[in-house]
Amino acid sequence: MVSGSERAGDAELYARALARLRALADASGEPADAAACEAIARRLDPARAGSALHLARAAESLNASLALESVLERALAVAVEVTCAERGLLALGGGRIAARHGFAEEAFAGDAGARARDAVAEALASGEARIGLGPAGSATSFACVPLRSRSDTIGAIYLDAPAANDAFDIADRESLMIFAHQAALAIENARMFEEEREGLRRISALQAFQTRILEAIGSGVITFSPEQEITTFNRAAETTFGIDASRIVGKPANALAMAIPDFPEMFATYFRSGAVALRAEVEAMRSDGTDLTLEMRLSPLESAEGTGVAMVVTDVTQQRNLEVAHAAEIAKTGRVQELFSRYLAPHVVKSLMEDPGSIQLGGERTRATMFFADVRGFTSLAAQMPADRVVEILNTYFDEAVGIVFEHEGLLDKFYGDGLMAVFGPPRVRKDDAARAVAAAIALHEIVDRLRARLDYPLRISVGLATGDVVAGHFGSARRMDYTVIGDAVNLANGLQSAAPAGAIYCDEATIAAAGPLSRPAGKLSVRVKGRSELVTAYAIYPKASEAR
User: Fold this and answer.
1) Is 49 in contact with 72 (CB distance < 8 Å)?
2) Rounded to whole angstroms, how far apart are CA atoms 441 and 373?
3) Nearest CA among 354, 352, 329, 476 for reference residue 414
4) Exposure of 27 in the CB half-sphere (CA atoms within 13 A)
């Protein structure tokens, strides 16, 4: 603001200058000189010059604040005060009113504000100032100047007052334009300051958000600067290593070697491989001496300072321990299953392992081919041999016999003395059950022929096969049960085996019919079977032609 003494001094100087000019004009006697003198007098009017000087000095005060709202309100207040305007408003781009004086919001929006709105729109569009009277018959004068910063119009100031106030005779276009230019610069400075402050606030908020994110991540996150110094060590990393972040942030990357012995070599490998990505599993140690297994992933981290490294550390110690325990459990289960398979049917063992509660007493009717094989004359010969020799012969024979049954996908039911019983069919009946049973019987005879020389014992067997309906299932008691089959075909196969001579396979008619073409000829005969009053029609197969009768 300009003081009263300053204004008085300026007015005195202007008065002296005007007096000198008028004297010169009078001396010339030329009307043109008199007119020029009056024009200069109007331009150098003390009130006008004082107002312009006041406006210029007031504009300088706008830069005292960088708060945008304060600058906007101050700019309008100065313009109103200096021009003695009755009303005023300051609009920014798009016509948005940022500050107002004497204008009620509804007045500006109604018919009374139409001239102000039009003047502001024209100033924003053209970038030109307008000063003058209102429409014909109007008792007001107005001024509207654009706020220009560089080559852009960022807003406008509109002022009006009663014409009788002579407000805009002392605040002419040039003075207001100079003021508007300085006001625009102050507004732009405040706006840039606000944007910078908002940017800093956002950066600060983003950094805080990133910190919260890092702290919330379950995996350890460690970042390294382009100079390979540790810059971030989140809470999960602190928990994993048992190291406080304050102890390690700012130290060289290789400081992690105290927890991860292989880290320096791994870090060097990451850069040698092109610094794109690296994943590795390493052994580490927590600060309390606990062994760790860590999965580490390294990737580039771009920042304003250059390219650093981000490392995600996942503690997989428990997972690996569980995997080892799981593998051991699987191996144990496999051993148990293998062991029980020596005593139980494979499908029974599988059911026990998958669902122990699925094994229940009971059975179901199905079709099967029964297989009985017995060592002929073994009981009398065994009485003349040491027990260990008897065991050796039987175990060697049974090992081969079981292998033959399993090879032909039969189910070993049981051993009885020097004989064995097998089932071809249940629990999964197929069309070729009888054919596989016959093939198994022929293969077993062939194996026995080779075992004679190996055991130095005249081992000979007979086999009985019968096909028919049986009931297959779990029989016994809740405390002790067996998976087996019962039915007439079981008894018939056992009887045919007892009737068959050494080296022979006796089959019933149903087995021959179901087996289809045979690899050995089968001779039809009638045999007496224990437990049956009538002769039974059977078919004899002799794997060795020399034993055929």
Assistant:
1) no
2) 8
3) 476
4) 6
3-state secondary structure of 237: helix
Q: How far apart are CA 419 and CA 404, in angstroms?
A: 14
pLDDT of 360 above 60: no
Residue 388 is which amino acid? D
- Smallest CA-to-CA distance from 520 within 434, 442, 447 is with 442
Q: Which residues of 300-325 are buried (b: 16+ CB within 10 A; e: fewer)?
A: ebeeeeeebbbbbbbbebeeeeeeee
Name the β-bridge partners of 505. Answer: 463, 541
Domains of the chain in sequence order: 45-192 (3.30.450.40), 217-315 (3.30.450.20), 360-547 (3.30.70.1230)
**What does each C-alpha distance from 348 to 92, 164, 355, 477 come to in angstroms?**
88, 115, 10, 16
In the DSSP assignment, the letter for residue 160 is E
How far is the C-alpha of 109 from the C-alpha of 123, rounded, in Å?
Answer: 18
* Beta-bridge partners for 252: 229
Q: Six-digit token pair at 247?
A: 């102890």
Report the chain's C-alpha Rg in angstroms. 56
φ/ψ of 128, rounded to 5, equals -110, 150
* Max Cα-Cα span within the chain: 173
Per-residue model confidence as pLDDT tens digits over 218-271: 678 889 999 999 988 888 888 889 999 899 999 999 999 999 999 999 899 988
**Separation CA 255–CA 276 (nearest Å):** 22
49, 443, 490 from 448: Cα distances, Å? 135, 9, 24
pTM: 0.45
Task: State how far the Cα of 382 lies from the Cα of 455, in Å rounded to an integer.
Answer: 14
178 half-sphere exposure, CB direction, 13 A CA radius: 14
Q: Rounded distance, CA 412 to CA 482, Å?
A: 12
